[in-house]
């Protein structure tokens, strides 16, 4: 009896040490709400506020506005800096390389610069919930003419972003606790109703960007549900499926483009890596599968005492 009690105590102690070790390896400030870590997703905006530097490269073959097919490579760079603990400013832009099919010339250059502000107004550690509101602006005329998203006019983009973990599920559904859902709803409002392009007058329509992600966190499974013995480095993976879309809401252009993006995100201590397929969900978006690749730096974890902390507390 005493031997069994000692063995039980040793087992509990070992399990506790393993849990503490795993929790410590995941105990970064970036993207946490309670026990839940929300990674930075590739095709939709994050629902939280932090210091971050992100590089996302996309490759796709699809139609342009005039219906011609293009091979397009896009590199998106974004940087966010917290001013207050739940308020951040951001700066970003895209470098585009477009190769029209059956044409000799390439179109390359910067799209319009984007600036933004985001405030995280809801954080519930108990229910693994968070929500933010934000306002971004695409500054007209800051990109190279002819490049995608290098319009001559500015666009305001107010939006709301949310994240929800399912750690509150009962014991009978414990293997669903690693699931999480994030979403975004963002309006795109041109500040000029019409613009002149190639000598012709064009209407600039209003549109709505929307998206959602479904995630299953292997780190959450291992640390807070059951250690099922998944070895390193696979125990740091979060499989994810994203839906990203844009719907024109003007009467003259009632159509939607978008994609379904299945992939995986790998979490490091100071950065994360991600890769997703880009599957168009209608002919207006395109017919071929593309790809997104991400390198994301946790600036707040990399430099917690200097540039990774809010300017004002």
In short:
This protein has 313 residues and is mainly beta.
Question: What would you say this structure looks like, in words?
Answer:
By secondary structure, the chain is mainly beta. The protein is built from 3 helices and 17 strands. The protein has a single domain (28-302), classed as Porin (Beta Barrel). It has helices at residues 2-26, 218-225, 299-302, and strands at residues 32-33, 36-37, 52-63, 69-84, 87-100, 107-110, 114-124, 129-138, 155-165, 179-190, 194-197, 200-203, 207-216, 237-248, 256-267, 271-280, 290-298. A 12-stranded antiparallel barrel has the order 3-4-5-7-8-9-10-13-14-15-16-17. The chain starts with a helix and ends in an 11-residue tail after the last helix. Residues 1-5 and 7-28 have low confidence and may be disordered.
Number of domains: 1
Q: For the record, what is the CATH homologous superfamily label?
A: monomeric porin ompg
What is the element string, with H for helices and E for strands? HEEEEEEEEEEEEEHEEEEH
Distance between the termini: 56 Å
Radius of gyration, rounded? Answer: 22 Å
Q: Ranges with pLDDT <50 over ≥5 residues?
A: 1-5, 7-28
Number of helices: 3
Bin the strand percentage. over 45%
